[in-house]
Amino acid sequence: MKRNVLSVLLLALALVLVFTSVSFAEAPSTADFFGERFGEDWRTAARSGVTDTSRPSQQVGDLIYTMGDVIITGITGKNENGLILSDDKCAYVLATMSIAPAEDMNIRLVPNAGYAQTDLWSKDDMDSLPFSEIPANTTSVQEIAASTDAKVLNVWASINGLLDRSGKTLPGSTGIIHWLQSDGSVLISLEFMLDEPIALQETYDLSIHIANWETTPDGKTLWEGHPKADWVFTIAPSKAE
Fold first, then answer.
1. 165 phi and psi, to 5 degrees?
2. What pTM value is reported for the model?
3. pLDDT in tens, 59-74
4. Is 122 within 8 Å of 15 (Cβ atoms)?
5. E strands within the chain?
6. 121 and 77 in contact (C-beta within 8 Å)?
7. pLDDT tens-digit profile of 16-59?
8. Which phi and psi (to 5°) does residue 40 adopt?
9. Under a CB-based contact definition with an 8 Å cutoff, are residues 121 and 138 in contact?
């Protein structure tokens, strides 16, 4: 998969669901995640920033949304030599998030990227995803859900932005990729680029929109009253040792 970095396009990959009962994996190291998928310059940029490792969680409906590391960086652009960094500014937020059903919930997840629950996933979709093991046989969400009498939920998460001291969202652009994992959870990479970099701070208030909605076996989307929230939490990033 090719990624146009800084254009903050909405991208997504569909992967394979495994329908056994498992423990869901936590989000990986954000710096390593971006480095492995998008290049060493992203790993270097992430490690040059400051990192919050508190990994808070929020339940919305029947799902648990858990943050990975949140990194504040000085990425301000890109040229032929790679990413452009400002050491003394907050310009670009990198983060990961894991989404999984609450305990004992019989649910199958679908990334919100236009995928139907009748879609099949092939090995070709998974070649760039070293965190996932490819099962021998692929199948559809519909078949998996039917075999286990499970509810199918589409999931969503994206950064609204950083908030200023008055609670107003600072303008910027957001980028996300949804990755369906082999354990049935969804991993999301989150990016937010401020229109105007700000001075580094000891703490930041981050707002993330999280939501999920059900799709019935006949393909009907149940929008009315679907669970959603604008989750605001405070991070206190520090330099990694």
1. -65, -20
2. 0.81
3. 999 999 999 999 999 9
4. no
5. 11-13, 50-52, 57-60, 63-73, 75-79, 82-85, 89-101, 107-111, 151-163, 172-180, 186-199, 204-215, 221-222, 228-235, 238-239
6. no
7. 222 233 356 678 899 999 999 899 999 999 999 999 999 999 99
8. -65, -25
9. yes
DSSP strand pairing (151-163 vs 172-180): unpaired
Lowest-confidence pick of 31-40, 101-110, 221-230? 101-110
Q: What share of the chain is helix, strand, coil (3-state, %, to 5)?
A: 10, 45, 40
Q: Which two tokens stand for residue 230?
A: 């604008």
Cβ atoms within 10 Å of 62's Cβ, excluding its own: 15
Tell which residue, 54, 48, 58, has the closest CA to residue 69.
54
Residues with Cβ within 8 Å of 77's Cβ and at least 6 positions away in sequence, in order, are 6, 83, 84
| Rg (the chain; Cα; Å) | 18
Sequence length of the chain is 241
CA distances from 45 to 11, 16, 82, 105, 146 (A): 21, 31, 10, 38, 44
Span between the terminal Cα atoms of the chain, in Å: 32
Which of these ranges, 11-25, 26-40, 72-86, 145-159, has the smallest mean pLDDT?
11-25
Tell me the three state secondary structure of residue 207.
strand
CA distances from 39 to 32, 170, 181, 228 (A): 10, 28, 21, 33
